[in-house]
Design a protein that fits this description.
The structure holds two protein chains of two kinds.
Chain A lengths: L2 H12 L8 H5 L5 H14 L3 E2 L12 E8 L27 E8 L10 E10 L3 E8 L6 H12 L4 E4 L6 H11 L10 E4 L1 H8 L8 H7 L15 H11 L3 H33 L11 H17 L3 H17 L8 H13 L3 H13 L5 H14 L3 H11 L2 H11 L9
Parallel strand pairs in A: 3-6, 6-7
Antiparallel strand pairs in A: 1-2, 2-5, 3-4, 4-5
Helix pairs in contact in A: 6-10, 7-9, 9-10, 10-11, 10-12, 11-12, 12-13, 13-14, 14-15, 15-16
Chain B lengths: L2 H10 L1 H4 L2 E7 L6 E2 L7 H9 L5 E2 H11 L4 E4 L6 H15 L4 E5 L3 H18 L5 E3 L6 H10 L2 E4 L1 H8 L7 H5 L1 E6 L7 H20 L5 E6 L5 H9 L4 E2 L10 E6 L3 E3 L4 E2 L2 H13 L5 E5 L2 H17 L7 E4 L5 H13 L4 E4 L14 E5 L5 H8 L9 E6 L4 H8 L1 H5 L13 H14 L2 E2 L3 E2 L2 E2 L1 H9 L3 E4 L2 E4 L18 E6 L6 E7 H7 L5 E4 L2 E9 L4 E7 L3 E22 L2 E21 L5 E6 L5 E11 L3 H8 L4 H20 L6 E6 L9 E6 L7 H22 L13 H4 L3 H12 L11
Parallel strand pairs in B: 4-9, 4-10, 5-7, 5-8, 6-7, 8-9, 11-18, 14-16, 14-17, 15-16, 17-18, 24-28
Antiparallel strand pairs in B: 1-11, 2-3, 12-13, 19-23, 20-21, 22-23, 24-25, 26-27, 27-28, 29-30, 30-31, 30-32, 32-34, 33-34
Chain lengths: 420, 764
């Protein structure tokens, strides 16, 4: 038996059964050599991709590029203080134009050295609320070094690279690919801002998840067209292109990446608006007309961010504002115990006991009746506001035997109880 | 009665001595020493002197010298001979003088890595040097990993983690790979067969990645005593190796007792069960106050013996907590507690599988009893080394089972006590294994079209993978081209990546109590099997094969189950052949289909058959390498004339060779299967097959092809001393299985086909 047959038989026995290739795929004839390159160039051209370096013809280390301009309102020239919004830094750029957005489409989602980015999208604001997007596409793995070098040149004037979950995925992946090609990290000089980090703090309680597409749709009101491709199908589109030269699904990937870039810029603008609100304080923040629920969530989220940044007082103001707004909504916006717990935790630190009392009262009013809430009330009335009857009432509701006895004794003017 | 007195008494007991085939007293040996080498950093000498070590053993000094010359080397050493200094000294010396230098330590198990890490760590602490030593394995918390990657001088890990956790992410380990000076591979004799073939490929990948970063590390290997440590280490690492043959460590007096249980059925040649005998002997030693380890060959036997010895211990005032079991499937913290209990003396007796054969520090024990031969001479010595680590009087009892390998060893103690006859075998070029690792390697770094891997070009296989769409070939390179992570699909320890999880249904929501490979699961976890775990019996309510789940319930029954596998074999191609012993020997490929069909219920204690049932599970299919031996047709008529049955004779001979051969090729009997056909469709002749039990084979059949004469001689000798009359499990198989004339027929065949020089011996 020759080697190939042996390989096939061993492979068949050890591999889990895979989906059989369709007849069309199996019989597809691939052109080869320059013929292939020319045919490929033509098909890529139909997708709006053109050779980065037309002089060099269609050799295999050629990188293909597509350019777009989308209208996306650019935040005002001077950015508000973003320090504390991201895992690290936040003050590396003072203007939106210093920010380069980046998103990659890769051959796998699990990482590791064998995963490469076959499409890299970058965007930046140009004058006139125009978001420029440039996509670099690899028609073959051989073009990777050129892509990385070109990316490094393009990124060089920017101060920050903004991504969505890029701190954990896109940036290390590009770093790894550069290392494998014995090149420097193309983004080494830029600070990394991962929009997912503040995104989670701002929206995790109001959205089912904080994936970019969820935030885009629910917070920014953006819709994607039907041609968008689900993320898990993306790697296969490139393999299919390499093996069979098909570009149908590739068009969907280009679309997907472009939407990702536009979405990221919108999310960034929301984030900047939130930072402005935070600076201005709750009283002067512009109302969100007709959307009380969002206003309440926004106030609450900003309170959480302020808390994270170590601005306890500001946090207290925002959370109190959030409770205020929530009560305005009636019970509906105020039913989740964890909101109340978060607000109480922060405001207690500011020692604003009247606000604490207010929040507890509202929560009880809205129908919350957990033992923990009564316990909070009992502690407040016993130790802070020194209203022992009220404390006793709540201690009884909470079923705290020890506290009940102590309060009864205090009310009867007796000394402390010695536990039996 | 202390140990010395007990041994004295046993020596006078006729009832005991009657079954002892050899009582070898291994005399104490003086150590051979050497001064600290001048080139060694003086700080190391100081630390060792503070610990009361004022000179080195000769083999340690030699290791330092070879490392200094930039050589890779292998140190074959017995247990407790100070082998760790053979690598710790050169490594620490290098790092002391070059703080950028890095070393990678590989141990076959996680437990052993932990143990060795503590040892290095204590040396480093005494040195007061800033040498960071970390273990990196599946239990390492995510938060610690970053620091380990960038600042660990010595990273202690296992081949599985190197394979799945480090190499596929090598760019995170730049510091390690750029500065990699040493790779230490301990217990290399463990890396043989399938596991060894995998690990050899992991090391090829390691070297490939190291080369990418411009590093060319030296390898330091340690091995138990085998016949070919140098060859094994070279095959494993692909490097030229020096061997440090002289061992300078001293040792205490050791009594090595070979015990062959009495024959209980003269006709069938069946001996008293090894478990029963071990139990009786262990009970004697329990009374002596000696700390004891009992090794059993299977998890099930560990559990059986544990149950018996706990009971026996209570009679002599040993609490059940002082008698413990130790085997795979126990949780890590449970194991740590047992190890510590042994070191500190709270555990007086431990019953273990070979899990404790490796160098995990359990302190000094006095007695080692082996319920059955450990499968290889090297492993047996390692197990025996558990007794008397600190030069005191110690005793080892090897209790033979009826199995032929055991019977061979027990009747030929010189084979065991003489120079090691065992050749460790592995085949890094096994196609299944090679192909798996080529995928992993391509994921780690693209292949250049003309790149060789190991010592051979692999272009043809890479082209095949490119055709399959796994790799992309373009511009002189092969790139990984799939959205999967290939290392995840390759398990170094078994052919199949999946396991069956064992779920205890009696607990709310079900609790996972263990895992088992698919092949064993078919035999031990089929519907209605009784599975033993932690001295608890479980009934298997249902084996959900598709979901890889076994649902079990604790039960208390007086039997256990034993399943039987049936195989069919088809010859595909012949690769090599040569005339041999009046017949024809060949090596080639075969296809096999096997299936577990029935199981027996066997009563605890008496071991009698009390019932049976059917098993309905899918067939397992495999292609592998086989040796076969064709017997000339003329013999068929001659046999008839002699009143013998060819079928019986072949069956008997297959049974015999299938059990004697593993002794020579350092295989577990389960690594090798033997079968015979009266007329093979391929050869058209009576044919005997001995084949690798792993897809593609890992070199066992090939070694048999080379060593068949020697194996036949040993088989004939073995048959000559077997006391049965018509065949027994120890030789040609019980007459009820192989046929009444099997023994006679096998002896006749060995005489007729064998070379002249053995004919006298085979007379029996």
């Amino acid at each position: 038996m020759d080697l190939k047959k042996r390989l096939a038989s061993l492979d068949r026995l050890t591999r889990k059964p895979a989906v059989e290739k369709s007849a069309a795929e199996a019989t597809a004839v691939r052109p080869a050599g320059p013929e292939l390159a020319a045919a490929q160039g033509e098909r890529l051209g139909a997708l709006g991709l053109h050779p980065l370096d037309p002089e060099a013809g269609t050799d295999s280390s050629q990188v293909y590029v597509a350019d777009y301009a989308d209208p996306v309102p650019c935040p005002a020239d001077t950015l508000p203080a973003l320090a504390g919004f991201f895992a690290r830094g936040g003050d590396e750029a003072t203007a939106a134009r210093q920010v380069l957005f980046l998103d990659t489409e890769t051959t796998g989602l699990m990482g590791g050295t064998g995963t490469l980015a076959f499409l890299v999208g970058v965007s930046w604001w140009q004058p006139g609320d125009t978001l420029r997007t440039r996509q670099f596409f690899l028609p073959s793995p051989a073009a990777e070094p050129r892509l990385l070098k070109t990316l490094a040149e393009l990124a060089q004037p920017f101060a920050v690279v903004a991504t969505y979950n890029g701190a954990a995925f896109d940036l290390p992946l590009l770093r790894t690919r550069a290392l494998l090609n014995r090149l420097d990290d193309p983004l080494a000089g830029l600070a990394g801002w991962d929009l997912l980090v503040p995104g989670r703090r701002l929206w995790n309680r109001q959205l089912p998840d904080c994936r970019q597409q969820t935030v885009e749709a629910r917070v920014c009101g953006l819709q994607r067209g039907e041609q968008d491709i689900p993320g898990q199908l993306i790697p296969q589109t490139w393999f299919t292109f390499l093996q069979q030269g098909h570009t149908e699904d590739l068009a969907r990937v280009l679309y997907h990446n472009r939407r990702d870039m536009v979405g990221m810029a919108h999310i960034f603008a929301r984030l900047v608006a939130a930072a402005h609100d935070l600076e201005a304080g709750p009283r002067s923040a512009p109302a969100i007309p007709g959307d009380a629920a969002r206003a309440w969530h926004r106030a609450w989220s900003l309170g959480r961010i302020a808390e994270y940044r170590g601005q306890g007082d500001v946090a207290g103001l925002w959370l109190a504002e959030a409770v205020q707004q929530a009560v305005g909504l009636g019970a509906a916006g105020f039913t989740q115990e964890r909101f109340v717990a978060d607000a109480l935790r922060v405001i207690k630190r500011t020692a604003d006991w009247n606000t604490v009392e207010n929040i507890i009262a509202r929560a009880l009013h809205c129908g919350q009746n957990g033992a923990w809430l009564h316990r909070e009330a009992a502690i407040l009335y016993e130790h802070r506001l020194i209203r022992l009857e009220k404390a006793l009432h709540h201690a009884r509701q909470a079923g705290e035997e020890h506290r009940i006895r102590r309060l009864e004794n205090k009310l009867a003017g007796r000394g402390p109880v010695i536990p039996s | 009665m202390n140990l010395a007195q007990l041994l004295q008494q046993l020596k006078t007991e006729e009832r005991f001595l009657r079954h002892v085939t050899r009582w070898e007293v291994i005399p104490p040996r003086e150590g051979q020493y050497a001064d600290f080498p001048a080139e060694l950093d003086p700080r190391l000498g100081e630390v060792l002197r503070r610990r009361g070590v004022d000179r080195l053993y000769s083999h340690q000094a030699r290791a330092v010298a070879l490392a200094g010359q930039g050589k890779s080397f292998v140190v074959p050493t017995p247990t407790a001979s100070g082998k760790t200094l053979c690598y710790n000294l050169p490594v620490l010396d290098t790092i002391l003088n070059n703080p950028h230098a890095r070393a990678l330590y590989l141990f076959p198990t996680k437990a052993l890595s932990q143990d060795q890490m503590h040892e290095v760590h204590s040396l480093v602490t005494d040195l007061g040097a800033d040498i960071k030593t970390f273990t990196f394995d599946g239990d390492t918390p995510e938060t610690a990993r970053r620091a380990i990657r960038s600042s660990g001088h010595i990273v202690v890990t296992n081949p599985d983690m190197l394979h799945q956790g480090i190499l596929p992410h090598h760019t995170l380990w730049v510091k390690l790979f750029e500065n990699l000076k040493y790779v230490v591979v301990d217990e290399v004799h463990h890396y043989r067969g399938v596991f060894g073939s995998h690990v050899a490929n992991v090391l090829r990948r390691l070297q490939r990645v190291a080369r990418f970063y411009g590093a060319d590390p030296q390898f330091i290997c340690c091995s138990a005593t085998i016949a070919n440590p140098r060859e094994l280490a070279q095959r494993l690492t692909g490097m030229d190796m020096e061997e440090i043959a002289q061992n300078g460590a001293p040792r205490g007096e050791k009594h090595f007792i070979f015990y062959n249980p009495p024959v209980v059925n003269q006709e069938l040649g069946i001996r008293q069960s090894v478990v029963k005998t071990t139990r009786t002997i262990a009970e004697r030693f329990m009374g002596s106050g000696a700390q004891m380890i009992v090794f059993a060959r299977s998890r099930m036997r560990v559990e059986l013996l544990l149950t018996y010895l706990e009971k026996a211990g209570r009679r002599v005032g040993i609490k059940s907590g002082e008698v413990r079991g130790y085997r795979g499937g126990y949780l890590p913290n449970e194991r740590r507690a047992i190890e510590q209990g042994l070191r500190q003396g709270q555990v007086s007796t431990v019953v273990s599988t070979n899990a404790l054969e490796l160098g995990i520090d359990i302190g000094r024990l006095d007695v080692c009893i082996m319920a059955g031969y450990a499968g290889t001479v090297a492993s047996t010595w390692q197990q025996a080394g558990r007794a008397g680590r600190r030069q005191n009087l110690s005793a080892v009892v090897l209790v033979a089972s009826s199995s032929p390998a055991d019977q061979y060893i027990i009747n030929h103690p010189d084979y065991f006590l003489g120079r090691s006859p065992e050749h460790a075998t592995l085949d890094p070029d096994n196609l299944v294994i090679l192909m798996s690792h080529l995928k992993c390697a391509a994921f780690e770094l693209p292949f250049l079209a003309d790149e060789s891997y190991g010592d051979q070009p692999v272009g043809e296989i890479l082209d095949y993978l490119a055709e399959q769409g796994v790799l992309h070939r373009g511009e002189g390179r092969y790139h990984w081209m799939a959205d999967t992570y290939p290392a995840e699909d390759v398990s170094l320890r078994s052919a199949a990546p999946d396991n069956v999880v064992i779920i205890d249904q009696s607990l709310p929501g079900g609790r996972i109590i263990g895992e088992m490979d698919l092949f064993s699961a078919q035999e031990m976890l089929h519907d209605d099997a009784v599975y033993l775990h932690g001295a608890q019996q479980y009934h298997v309510d249902r084996l959900d094969w598709d979901r890889r789940e076994a649902h079990v319930q604790p039960v208390k029954v007086d039997y256990y189950t034993d399943a039987q596998r049936k195989s069919e074999l088809k010859t595909l191609t012949a690769e090599l052949d040569r005339p041999l012993l009046n017949g024809q020997a060949a090596l080639g490929e075969v296809g096999l289909v096997s299936k577990v069909t029935v199981y027996k219920k066997i009563k605890l204690g008496t071991h009698e058959n009390v019932g049976a049932g059917r098993v309905h599970l899918p067939e397992m299919e495999m292609h592998t390498t086989s040796f076969w031996y064709e017997i000339p047709e003329v013999l068929q008529q001659e046999m008839l004339n002699a009143g013998l049955d060819l079928g019986d004779a072949l069956k008997g001979l297959a049974h015999l060779l299938g059990r004697v051969a593993p002794v020579f090729i350092m295989a577990d009997p389960s690594d090798l299967h033997a079968t015979a056909m009266v007329r093979s469709p391929f050869t058209g002749l009576p044919t005997l097959y001995l084949y690798d039990a792993f897809p593609g084979g890992v070199g066992y059949a090939r070694r048999i092809f080379d060593q068949f004469e020697e194996i036949c001689e040993a088989a004939a000798r073995h048959l000559g001393v077997c006391p049965c009359s018509k065949g027994c499990p120890s030789c040609t198989g019980p007459g009820t299985e192989s046929g009444d004339t099997a023994r006679e027929g096998a002896a006749w065949l060995l005489r007729r086909v064998g070379p002249a020089r053995q004919q006298a011996g085979a007379g029996g």
